[in-house]
Protein 1
Amino acid sequence: MKEAMPVLTAGAGLHETLALLTSQLRPDANHKEDMVFLKDVFSERSLGYLMKIHEKLRQYERQSPTPVLHSASSLAEDLNVWFLSHQAVLSVHDTVAQKNFDPVLPPLPDDLEDELEEESVKIVRLVKNKEPLGATIRRDEATGAVIVARIMRGGAADRSGLVHVGDELREVNGVSVIHKRPDEISQLLSQSQGSITLKIIPAIKEEDRLKESKVYMRALFDYIPLEDKATPCQEAGLPFKRGDILQVVTQDDPTWWQAKRVGDSLLPCAYPHLFPACLPTEDCDCEGYFNGQYIAGLRRSFRLSRKDRQGSSGEGSDPGDPDFLTYEEVTRYQQRPNERPRLVVLIGSLGARINELKQRVIAENPHRYAVAVPHTTRPKKPHEKDGVEYHFVTKQQFDADALNNKFIEHGEYKENQYGTSIEAIRSVQAKNKMCIVDVQPEALKRLRTAEFKPYVIFVKPRVPESRRRRSAATSPGGGEHGRITDEDLQEMRQSAIQIDQQYGHLVDRVLIKEDSASACAELRGILERLERESFWVPLCWVRT
């Protein structure tokens, strides 16, 4: 009996037809090899995939698809315009790339080779536009030679690497400078545009190229180079204010640093070091060098008389010592999770009421902030607990601790002794809490140690010009404290000025107290940032 032939339905696809056809192939004796070949072809996987794709396309065709866009021709036109415009840009690029924009340099003198051999002269060709050359020159008093005194970091001379301190300058663009004054030579240099050719006798020992430094200094005073007569080039001086962080780029010069203020986008030139007894006259072409664009100079340190020191003070300065610190080397520091929290020190001028501010912040979050429990010799009151409000000790014990320098500060009030001990601060920090203390400014010297790494906040009330400009019944610190006279305001103002003059260089933040609520919010924000951000601290605090 003959096997029935399978029947295809009307909707059978090409893929199903191919599969059915393959299953019906039966080899016979006469055409066995042909049948095997056909079966292999129809069974090929790639052919099956093609059939499926064909079916999907036919199915999509039966759905009568509509165009996604009706503006294909305009889109093609836009693309064509885009390609043409970019073709023009590429054409311009090719044209520019084939041009030579190097300056046309004048030919070398015919007798140059003989001169080079005779005096070891070096010909230096620099390209500068409207920028200064970035070098100072001076006249050697012994020989009369014109000497390169300094190279300003970032200028054309520095970038070339061909001009060095100590080189003797002979000619500028073929003009001899042997008998010219330094200011005439500087004018000649500044007026030269495009290419500039220098004839130089190299120094016997050429200095190494200036290297980028990672030395940072905190300025402890204000500096205005135009007022410093010892500055060899006032246009290349770096003005700064007390508290500015300076990155010292080079300390090669024994008298002058070259530095830039941290935060300036580009490099400014250099200044203070040891106050020189006598500096040779120098001149330069650095006009306009200090628009915050290059590195500037600064003197490394100063010798100031007691009169000059009015309004400036260095850490640990002795009234009888004419020398005091004018810079403090610093680095960035951020508290690590396993380290003790930094000590927060509040100092305040008259009317600031910093104890109230401290207590309010601690009361809001006693789990994070705490006060160092003070010592006292007064009798304990019934509601007080030893070690909570105070550490109650005898007068003999208090005097012994004071003699052994265990207190950061202490004093007498109504015949009772009070003091804050170092151990009380350590006790708070051992609990992983941030200790907040308010002290007299004189105590800062004792607290500024690597152990405590104090962050000093100077709180001062905003004092109006006169009593008439404010509410007559309100004190600057907030609250009702009776009438404030003009004499009271003057005392507050003078108190803030005095603290700023004597201790301002040790302050990390100034908090102007408008009222208790806003001052508390500002202090809270400072404390929160102190735990998660990095700050500048003296290098000796973190150096291991």
Protein 2
Amino acid sequence: MTTTRQPSGTALPADSRLARELLDGLAEAVLTTDETGQVTLTNAMATELLPEVTTGTELASCPVTALAQAVAGDADRFDADHHGRRLRGARRHLARSGYAWYIRDVTEEHARADALRAERSRTAFLAQAGSQLGLSLQRDQVLLAATTLAVPYLADIAVALPRPTVPAEPHARWIRYADGEPAPVTGLAGAALTSTVPGLAEALAGDLTEPVPWLDAEPANLATMLPPGFGPPGMVLVCPLLSAGGSAGALLLIRRAGRAGFDRRDVELAREFAARAGAALATADLHAEQAHLARVLQASLLPPDLPTVPGVTMAGGYRAAGDSLHIGGDFYEVFPHPRGALFALGDVCGRGVGAAVLTGRVRQSLQTLRLVEQRPLELIHLLDRALFDAPDAAGRSQFTTLLLGSLDCGPAGADARIAGGGHPAPMLVTADGTVTPIPVGGMPVGALTVARFAEARVHLDPGDLLLAYTNGVTEARGPRDGAMFGAARLRAALASAAGRPPAALIDRVLQAVDDWLDGQAHDDIAMLAVGVDAGVTDGFGA
């Protein structure tokens, strides 16, 4: 039998040429050993991947450390780097004594797996960062979150520099968080920092340039914002905090000397993170603006402090229908005059801010109109005309029910004239516990072009109370069967508080309504209680 020398140096019978071709055509390296552990065969891929291993090599002491250790330890697998490639080997027993090692080059597979893990890590980081940034509705909270979230994933130090809110402000405030620090630190940046750190001045000014890694940072320019002992930074990356209106500031990501620099994927990730932080800043700024407007609106629409009226004691009660701004469509007003007071209590159609805006319009109209007219019936007609004369009256489709009364005090008590515009009848509570509704009637104000209004008169003796209320009281529904609180329960609550001051009566009614609701949602509620003090004298001169 003749033999043929193959490129790998292994002698095989001539009729084994086909087997050699098959072995050399494999994409993985194949090594076989005899019972002593010497290599008896290598294929072409083995020669390429493991040139140190040839026929006759003692595998347990070969130059391929990971393979030699696996053989010496009688292991069936190894996974290691060799000549810049990632190799993965598996051992199989042969039918005759000896082994075959099958070794694959998994460099590309390993790189793809690493890339996939890195991408999943980046996605998880952005998801977590976006969630936490989205929960921050205040500017300082966003800046704190932007710095703490970036460390240590993106950098060893993160510094947020918001753009100064005042253009002439000479210094930029910064917030820094460093890996290992217990909490973020704040400070002021001088002009030298913004003028010498490449891209920083542009970012603070709103220039939407691409973030650029910077390798030549001078420690003197960054020393004020670096923690003690940090040393010269290895690399600094400046990212604008982008928002819809431009740049809201800049984010400096600083890595230690010796840590890998920012590669393309790092820059892309940092840019995306900074954009999310910038969007969160914009949201926080919008929230702050809306909160300011809400506070201004709330201050103008909440029921006012009641004035002091000689001979009269008054108290008000107000509950908005679950609105976070605590404003709604129910209101009351009291305007003193020389003989007593003019009072109003109303319920604008709707809830929340929309109803509160019309409430403000009604109250402002009353404040103006009562300067020229203080008779309730005439005044309610003027208010109705004023609401219809408003520019947006036709498209607004809103109206208000209203009680508008005047109180004239004298030595024998007080006389009240009450004009009505479709509102629930007020209640007269006498000192002996008698509760009597005072029918007024009338049509809602601002609802019909030809509306009719009515007026009622009532005398209040010392110790009597007059209660005006909105339908949020009587229409409050209980949680069990949805039954309304109703007028009968209201009268019972008032009777139980007879003889007590107006504030105590208001508290008693609110407590009864709360007990009835048992935590359920309710409509807007407003109440105004007016009581005549004992011993009233005619001391109200013109």
Protein 3
Amino acid sequence: MGSLGFWRLAQADPEWIAAVDPDGTRHAAGDLLARANRLVHGLRGLGLQDGDGICGLVPNGVEGLVLYLAALQAGWYYTPINWHLTGPEIGYIVADSEAKAFFVHERYAQEGARAAEDLDPRRRFAFGRVEGFHPYEDLVEGQPSDLPEGRTNGATMHYTSGTTGRPKGVRRRLAGLDPDDSAELMTFLLGMFGITPGRPAGGAPQAHLITSPNYHTAVTQFGGSALQMGHTIVYMDGWDAEECLRLIQEHGVTSTHMVPTHFKRLLGLPEEIKKSYDVSSMKWAIHAAAPCPVPIKQRMLEWWGDCVWEYYAATEGGGTVAGPQDWRAHPGTVGSAWPISELLIVDDDGEPVPAGTHGTIYMKMAGTEFEYKGDREKTEENRLKGFFTVGDVGYLTEDGFLFLSDRKADMIISGGANIYPAEIENEITLHPKVADVAVFGIPDEEWGEQIKAVVEPAEGAPPGPDLAAEILASLDGRLARMKWPRTIDFIETMPREPNGKLLKRKLRDPYWKDRGSAI
């Protein structure tokens, strides 16, 4: 294969600045390579073998990057964990992934320590001070910095929540490739957008801005692929619209991955601030994760020019891409199928429907067989003749452009994050004063959707603000705050069919009645 891949590039040019931390600290590729190598040697000393897994509860920055680079050259699975989760939720992922080592940053010490209660203390490591964890330095001290023997490709294993509320690890078979060759194959993702390797002939090095938490699949894939192409990774630690513009200007950022909420915040800045930063270096502002209102996309194109790209995809693989010209010709589209991906729109009986007809969206991508770890039944349940679905609904035009018309009936997309009501309902229903509960998304101008709970109080429990506050307080420590309902309404009797099926649309529709689409 060619000359892409972090490990090749770092050996050829160890002084290349591969990453910039949120505090502005710059990290040379040679230093990151040495750190990743020492970590591989250290973990192999603990007995880790090909196919094993490690988990990281770490903020955006090089700590997580080193874990990623170590796993991807040692044949391991790396699972970055959502730091908004509570101890039991984190502990479930650590246990389910069968992690042989768990790394926690001191920023998340409290929930990280709760998550590790059942994990062998010899396999807990901390960046900073975390009670009951060994310092990371103890693991790598004295380890050689040279490339380990028997290098083979690893992979990330992200957890994606299902409608049952328990997250599932999306696990792909490891191919046994040279890590750099595997990394070079990964870069096809960026190639679909026309992104080129790091340093154009005679030009400045390219940089990729990470604007969202590194535990999201897309953030890892886009940032990781950009690094494998020789781009500098610039990390943000939390979103701030003006800071985003400042970093684009300072580092000559050429690509980034955003969600529509970011666009809304950027457009909301005062005109004098927007005009005071030079964003002309940006060539690929790629967005996904939630539908982008047509007027917001149009305003971004007017401001940043034809660098705004969109795609639709899932952790499981496959998807569409819409370049600026495609989108201008088909406003609102999420694009046409990737070169190695296929789309299928079917009715409720699984039969294909004609162009322009709404149906469930199925996708498949060549060479990306996956399974939900430990759940073959769920894996098969979402498949149809080699295609899979995440339950979204849409239609294709005659010329192959996909439009989303609705999505998984219950999933809430708030600020680009997928939130699954079943998990929230399962916690609220445990409250002794709750007879029944329904959770769904309602319109929110800033976040796209906010979480609404409708509760049928138990007999003798008076509805009102006091009960709402009591229900929310009961979620503390059991459910991440990002999943808490913003508001709770009360209802005398929940609308259910005789078979017990909840008619959630009856509850949700009044909140969406003035909207063009319930998305």
